[in-house]
Design goal:
mainly beta, two-stranded antiparallel sheet
Length: 115
């Protein structure tokens, strides 16, 4: 991704993103995915609830993801990924083929808004 060519958006557009903190409850392999991916069950608190996603974050083990807090965009349309309904987009920083998940430096309540 070339950041120099990305279209600028307004603060109003940015404010439309529902960025929410959640905790991964379950993780498993998405065996139907062409590229290695995991299916995650995430608790985003009472306002958003439990959501599922398929994510290419296989530089983490399935076990180390359980209980980990993550930041996700929760108001994008659902997307079919290898026959699976992915409901949220987890945010992370990319480094080569690895994705390093964004998370707070202290444990916070699920459903905490990011802004």
């Amino acid at each position: 991704m070339n950041l120099l060519n990305i279209e600028q958006i307004s603060i109003t557009d940015f404010a439309k993103l529902n960025l929410v903190l959640g905790t991964i409850l379950e993780s498993s392999e998405n065996v139907k995915a062409k590229k290695s991916a995991y299916i995650l069950k995430i608790d985003f608190g009472k306002n958003v609830g439990i959501k599922y996603t398929s994510a290419q974050i296989t530089n983490y083990s399935l076990e180390e993801l359980i209980g980990r807090q993550v930041v996700a965009v929760c108001n994008l349309p659902s997307k079919k990924v290898a026959g699976f309904k992915s409901e949220v987009l987890i945010l992370g920083a990319t480094s080569g083929k690895n994705v390093h998940l964004l998370r707070p430096d202290i444990k916070l309540k699920n459903g905490t808004l990011i802004g």
